Amino acid sequence: MDGAKLVKVALVLAAIGLADAAYLTIDHYTNIPVACPSVGIINCGDVLNSSYSSLFGVPFAVLGLVFFAIEIAVILLGNKDLLVLYNGVGIAVVAYLVYTEYLIGHICLFCTLVHVLVVTLFALSVVYYDSWPVKKKSAGAAHGKRRGR
User: What DSSP string describes 116-129?
Assistant: First the structure.
């Protein structure tokens, strides 16, 4: 996959994650029931209202908003090392969240979408590491010179 296409795919995936996290954040603060079935193991309400649904009082939905906003910024910055590192942090958080769903005994479909997106973004940043376009610094910036002098 060429660099330009890779960036577009990553930006679309991050935008989907941002929209999903925004939906879950709105759900959290308005108490409007999330559109998710409550059948068998699938029960978004139980997951989203559990004691595991926040970190230091901040809902994971809000943290997801922040994560995907930063993801978009990191993609646009063109720093592939930072992208891999940042997505690695995302993978660690996803592992924790999947474990908490196991403890709760239910899964949330909207949360699962976020998990799949984070894993996919991590995989793209690692598998296509050499294809990521890197933003070049200007000659003046590389030598610590100011422009316009």
Answer: HHHHHHHHHHHHTG
Question: CB 25: neighbour CB atoms within 10 A?
Answer: 17
Angle at 9 between CA 6 and CA 15, to 5 degrees: 140
Q: What is the mean pLDDT of residues 120-144?
A: 75
- Of 30, 49, 25, which is closest to residue 100 (Cα–Cα)? 49
Whether 137 is covered by a domain: the verdict is no
CATH no. for residue 77? 1.20.1440.130
**Nearest Cα to 104, choosing from 149, 53, 36, 140?**
53
Q: At residue 136, what is the residue type?
A: K
Question: Percent helix, strand and coil across the chain, each rounded to 5?
Answer: 70, 5, 25
Reported as a pLDDT band with limits 50, 70 and 90, residue 118 is very high
